[in-house]
Amino acid sequence: MAGLSASGLKTQIRSYTEVSSTVLSDSVLENIILNAQYRIFRDVPIDADRKTSTGNFTSGTGTVTVPAGAVFVRAVQVYTATGSTYTGANTYLEKKDLTFLEEYISATTSTGTPKYYAMLDTGATGESSSNSGSIIVSPTPSGTFAYKIHYNAVPSIFENNDTNYISMNFPNGLLYCCLAETYGF
């Protein structure tokens, strides 16, 4: 199966379900297709959406904003070097629950090289830097450490007559997911 356009996908959904456009209107199908894409993005993280962001932790500050458009964080890497040098000795931080870090921080007030991280801020949607959430690290950095955040970004959405990575490379999966969403309708 070659890639699908939006109109081709809508035609196939109507054909498989044997339902006309009076019931499955374009606006209803657009919502079904959107829900199917979100399901795929959530359940099958695609390598094409993997991104990295770099920066520096500052001494005494244990939080950093997650990059704009991040859906979820895969890993946080800390380097002993500072500035724009992201080579050499580095450590991947161990992801922990926020409650673990709160207990760990209260038990050890010392600073040092970060060892753990947790997601901070609930309700993060990934749509912008103000609502992508934050990361808290522990122990609190004792100096300036370079970091690299590995994350999955919000993928391009398949709308109108456009195509996206899924519609071109996984059209049968998109169709299947759309049909599953349609039968729930």
Structure description:
The protein has 185 residues and is α+β, with helices and mostly antiparallel strands. The chain folds into 2 domains: 6-45 and 156-184; 48-153, no CATH class. The chain is built from 5 helices and 10 strands; from the N terminus they run ααβββββαβββββαα. The protein has helices at 6-17, 26-43, 98-107, 165-169, 171-184, and strands spanning 50-57, 63-65, 70-79, 90-92, 94-95, 111-112, 116-120, 134-138, 140-141, 145-153. The strands form 3 sheets. A 4-stranded antiparallel β-sheet has the order 1-10-3-4, with no helix packed on it. Strands 2-8-7-5 form a 4-stranded mixed β-sheet. It has a two-stranded parallel sheet with strand order 6-9. The two termini are 26 Å apart.
Number of strands: 10
Total of DSSP H or I helical runs spanning 4+ residues: 5
Poorly predicted sequence stretches spanning 5 or more consecutive residues? none
The whole-angstrom Rg is 21 Å
Shape summary: elongated
The largest sheet, given as strand count, sense and whether it forms a barrel, is: 4 strands, antiparallel
